[in-house]
Predict the structure of ABC transporter domain-containing protein.
Amino acid sequence: MIAMLKIKDLNLTVHHQQILQKMTIDFQPGNVYGIIGPTGLGKPRCSNQFLASLDMPEQ
């Protein structure tokens, strides 16, 4: 199946601690994805990093 969205080699550091290192994920159409973890782990930063990695067309 062809990925609807692919994120490749994503890195994320929160409070001088590396949370993600070269994470690659394919998002498939029709699936639901979520980010879970304890408080303070950087879930909003992770989702913001995902969005920042997208090539969005200028409006």
Remarks:
- Strands lie at 5-14, 17-27.
- The radius of gyration is 13 Å.
